[in-house]
Design brief:
2 domains; alpha/beta; 11 helices; about 25% strand; Peroxisomal Thiolase, Chain A, domain 1; about 30% helix; globular; single chain; four-stranded mixed β-sheet
Length: about 325
């Protein structure tokens, strides 16, 4: 039986660091306020004019191909999870392929907000498990700074820019993606979204003047649902696969809010040392948070480690994925 296993991971964050101190000079906020409520100290911002998610992703992809000594010609599928694509079309995955010399793959984008990387990973696994594709790149990349209103303290503190990528390949051993549980509640679209810029409300002077091209979020509702759904699906996944908290080696949560992460881990009865947390350094980079964690922790991961990835995003979308790590870091 073929399973899809991660065989490599890389990430990229822009050089420019936006600190809480700098934010406090832009909007009515403070380091103490942000750290207490969200847990973010700084975030990386893509400042270069004319650059987007494809540039960050291409940098991560090139690093991964070099590290794995793989030719771009060997890649046969590229999926990019993003909600801030370079353009409405073509797909950012197409642009990434062009910028990295990948010519033998078909490429497409997947949009599920902060759950996007997990959805893309599960989608890619189906192509690998059927034997249809052999080397697949799954990317999470978002330039959230492009849709953040830096006069709104409820959202401008949260988001950063980054890209992460994993290489997915077939395996016949017991490692790889084992199971996943995903869900959607479309009524949540009213609580976390960007109103304008799509076909319903195309860009106009009115939409720009009204600030409708920025993220809108009802924080309390999102917090409640995220804490509940990430924990519910993770616990259900553990029960379904006969995993106890002791059996789990790592929990990789989407990095949206430190209180959400801690509440989810408590419900799972996990030792805090098993929870990957880097939100303080990067903020919420949307589809990039999970691969960014995997990249930072790669050297500590061991073959056959039991890992659960979990995310919650606008839409509402959510889910958890269980995998056995495929190699020693």
């Amino acid at each position: 039986m073929i399973k899809a296993v991660i065989t490599g991971v890389e990430a990229y964050v822009p050089d420019y660091v936006l600190t809480n101190d700098e934010l406090s000079r832009m909007v009515d906020t403070s380091d103490e306020w942000i750290m207490k409520r969200i847990g973010i100290k700084e975030r990386h911002i893509l400042k270069e004019k004319g650059q987007g998610p494809s540039d960050m992703a291409a940098a991560a992809v090139n690093k991964l191909l070099k590290k794995k000594n793989i030719s771009p010609n060997e890649i046969d599928l590229v999926i990019c999870a993003t909600v801030t694509g370079d353009h409405p079309f073509p797909a950012t995955a197409n642009i990434i392929s062009d910028k990295t010399g990948i010519v033998n793959a078909f490429s497409f984008d997947l949009g599920a907000a902060c759950s996007g990387f997990l959805y893309a990973l599960a989608t890619a696994s189906q192509f690998v498990e059927t034997g249809n594709r052999k080397k697949v790149l799954v990317i999470g990349a978002d330039k959230m700074s492009s849709i953040v209103d830096y006069t709104n303290r409820s959202t401008c503190c949260i988001f950063g820019d980054a890209a992460g990528v994993v290489l997915l390949e077939p395996t016949h051993d017991d490692t790889g993606i084992q199971d996943f549980i995903f869900g959607t509640d479309g009524s949540g679209r009213h609580n976390l979204y960007m109103k304008a810029g799509g076909s319903v409300w195309p860009a106009s002077h009115e939409t720009v003047d009204a600030g409708e091209h920025f993220i809108y979020q009802e924080g309390q509702t999102v917090f409640k649902y995220a804490t509940m759904k990430m924990a519910d699906t993770s616990i259900e996944l553990m029960k379904k696969n006969n995993l106890s908290a002791d059996d789990l080696d790592w929990f990789v949560p989407h990095q949206a809010n430190i209180r959400i992460i801690e509440a989810t881990a408590r419900r799972m009865e996990l030792d805090p040392s098993k929870v990957m947390i880097n939100i303080e350094k990067y903020g919420n980079t949307t589809a990039a948070t999970i691969p960014l964690c995997l990249c930072e922790w790669e050297s500590r991961l061991k073959k056959n480690d039991n890992i659960i990835l979990s995310a919650f995003g606008g839409g509402f979308t959510w889910g958890s994925l269980y995998m056995k790590w495929g190699y020693n870091g």
